Amino acid sequence: MLLLLKIAILAIIFIILIRLKLSIGFSFLVLSFLWALFFSMPLANFSKSVFLAVFSFSTVRLYIIVYLIALIGIMLKQTGEADAVADSVSRLFREPRPAVTILPAVIGLLPMPGGAMFSAPLFEKSAAVFSLPPEKKLVINYWFRHLWEYCWPLYPGLIVASEMLDVPITRLMASQFPFTLFMILLGLLFFILPLPRIMAERDRKISFRDILNFILRLWFIWMIVICSVVGGVDLAVALALISLVFLVMLLLRKALSSKLLLSFLKDAFSFKILVLVFSVMVFKQVIEGSGALDSLPDVLSALGLPVVFILFVIPFSLGLMTGVNFAYIGISFAIVLPIISGNLTLVAFVYSSGFAGVLLSPVHLCLALSKIYFDADWGKVYKLLFLPVLLLIVFSFIFLLVR
Question: Is residue 201 part of a domain?
Answer without folding.
Answer: no
